[in-house]
C-alpha cells in the first residue's frame, strides 16, 4: 500500500478529501494535518510515499512546502489540491504528479490514482490477494470503521460488503507460528502454497497477525448454520492435514454468518474459539464459538490491564512457586479445573490420588482460598480462560 499524508489548513476540506481517498485500498492514510510543520515532523521520522497538499495556506506556500518536504524524502510524490488554478504551471515545475481544483470529486480522483499507480509501480502490481489481505487486516485493527468507506474499498477489491460469509481462524502449530522474519524460506513457500490451495471456489484466505483467516461464502441454512460450518471446517482441516501436515493446530469458527460490518469482532470470536478449544479439548481440532460457554465473551469487555492483573494475582503466584520449587502445581490446578473429579485428575496426570489431594491443599494455601468454593472456582475459571486467550498454546500431546 502507498503510505499517504494529507495537508490542508481547512479542516472540512481535509476531512472531505480523507473520506474520498479512504475508498481506495491501494492508499494507506498515515497522517492528516492542518499544520505544515507537524506534517514535516512525520516525514522526518517515517517513510511516506505520497502527499496531497493544499497549495495556498495562510502560513505557507504549497510550492515551497513541496520543496522542503523533498529534503526529507526525495522520492515523495506530490499531488496539489487547491481552490485556484493559476498555480498549475508552477506546480508542475516542482514535479507534482497532478493538480486538482476543489471541490474534489471522485471521478477526478480516479484519474489521479491511476497516475499515482503508474509512478509507484509496486502498488499497481501488488497481487489482488495481497491487497485483500491488507484490507482485512486493516479491518481487524479498526483502521476502517465507516460503512461507506468499507463498502467502497471492498468494491474495488472485487468484494461485496453486504454478502454474508462464515469466518474461520486457522491457528498455526507452535513450530509454524514464528514471525515472518524468522521463518525459513521453505516455510514461507509452504505458507504461500497453503493460501493458494485454500483460496478456491467459495473460500478466500489471507494471512493475519496471528495465523490464517478464511472467509467461506458458501450459503448456509439459518437453522443448521453451526453444523454446516463445522462440517466445512472439518473438511478444510482434513485437506490441510493431508497436504501440509503439522502446520495447522486448530480451526475456530465465528458464530453465525455475517458481513464485513462486524468483521473484527467475528474474527476475534473465531480466534478465541481456537485458542480456548485446543487447550480444553486438544483432539477435537475444530471449535465453534457457540460451544465455548459464557466465560469467553468476558474477554471482549475486560480491559487488558485488568486481565493482566487478574492472571497475575491468581496463576502468577502459582507459576512463581513452581519455578522456585520445581513443582507442577499449575498443571495440577489446570487439570482440577478442567475435570469433574480428583480421581479423573489422578488418572490423567498418572499420579496417585493422594498426591492430587496433597497438591490441591498446597494450591489452596498459596492462593488463599478453597477450590471447593463456587467463588474460587469461578474466579479461577475466568482467569484460566483469559490466560489461554493471551498466549499461544502448546502443541497438543499425542
UniProtKB/TrEMBL annotation:
Pfam families: GGDEF_2, HTH_30, Response_reg. Residues 3-117 form the Response regulatory domain. Keywords: Phosphoprotein. The modification 4-aspartylphosphate is found at residue 54. It comes from the Bacteria. InterPro entries: CdaR-like_regulators, CdaR_GGDEF, CheY-like_superfamily, PucR_C-HTH_dom, PucR_C-HTH_sf, Sig_transdc_resp-reg_receiver. PANTHER family: CARBOHYDRATE DIACID REGULATOR (PTHR33744). Belongs to the CdaR family. This is Transcriptional regulatory protein YpdB.
Amino acid at each position: 500500500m502507498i503510505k499517504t499524508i494529507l495537508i490542508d489548513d481547512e479542516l472540512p476540506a481535509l476531512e472531505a478529501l480523507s473520506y474520498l481517498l479512504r475508498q481506495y485500498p491501494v492508499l494507506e492514510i498515515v497522517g492528516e494535518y492542518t499544520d505544515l510543520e507537524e506534517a514535516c515532523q512525520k516525514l522526518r521520522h517515517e517513510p511516506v510515499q505520497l502527499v496531497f497538499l493544499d497549495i495556498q495556506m495562510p502560513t505557507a506556500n504549497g510550492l515551497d512546502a513541496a520543496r522542503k518536504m523533498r529534503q526529507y524524502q526525495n522520492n515523495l510524490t506530490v499531488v496539489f489540491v487547491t481552490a485556484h488554478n493559476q498555480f498549475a504551471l508552477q506546480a508542475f515545475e516542482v514535479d507534482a504528479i497532478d493538480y486538482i481544483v476543489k471541490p474534489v470529486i471522485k471521478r477526478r480522483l480516479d484519474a489521479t490514482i491511476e497516475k499515482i499507480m503508474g509512478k509507484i509501480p509496486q502498488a499497481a502490481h501488488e497481487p489482488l490477494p495481497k491487497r485483500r489481505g491488507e484490507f482485512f487486516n486493516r479491518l481487524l485493527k479498526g483502521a476502517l470503521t465507516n460503512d461507506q468507506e468499507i463498502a467502497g474499498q471492498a468494491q474495488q477489491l472485487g468484494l461485496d460488503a453486504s454478502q454474508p460469509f462464515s469466518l474461520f481462524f486457522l491457528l498455526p502449530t507452535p513450530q509454524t507460528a514464528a514471525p515472518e522474519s524468522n521463518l525459513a524460506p521453505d516455510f514461507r513457500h509452504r505458507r504461500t502454497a497453503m493460501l493458494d490451495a485454500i483460496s478456491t471456489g467459495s473460500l478466500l484466505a489471507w494471512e493475519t497477525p496471528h495465523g490464517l483467516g478464511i472467509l467461506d461464502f458458501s450459503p448456509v441454512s439459518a437453522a443448521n448454520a453451526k453444523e454446516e460450518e463445522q462440517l466445512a471446517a472439518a473438511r478444510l482441516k482434513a485437506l490441510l492435514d493431508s497436504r501440509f501436515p503439522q502446520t495447522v493446530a486448530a480451526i475456530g469458527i465465528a458464530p453465525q454468518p455475517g458481513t464485513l460490518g462486524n468483521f473484527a469482532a467475528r474474527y476475534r470470536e473465531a480466534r478465541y474459539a481456537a485458542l480456548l478449544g485446543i487447550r480444553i479439548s486438544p483432539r477435537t481440532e475444530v471449535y465453534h464459538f457457540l460451544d465455548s460457554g459464557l466465560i469467553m465473551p468476558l474477554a471482549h469487555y475486560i480491559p487488558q490491564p485488568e486481565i493482566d492483573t487478574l492472571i497475575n494475582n491468581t496463576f502468577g503466584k502459582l507459576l512463581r512457586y513452581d519455578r522456585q520449587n520445581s513443582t507442577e502445581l499449575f498443571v495440577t490446578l489446570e487439570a482440577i479445573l478442567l475435570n469433574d473429579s480428583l480421581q479423573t485428575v489422578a488418572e490423567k496426570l498418572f499420579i496417585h490420588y493422594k498426591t492430587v489431594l496433597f497438591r490441591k491443599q498446597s494450591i489452596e494455601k498459596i492462593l488463599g482460598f478453597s477450590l471447593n468454593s463456587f467463588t474460587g472456582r469461578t474466579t479461577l475459571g475466568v482467569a484460566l480462560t483469559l490466560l489461554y486467550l493471551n498466549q499461544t498454546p502448546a502443541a497438543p500431546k499425542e
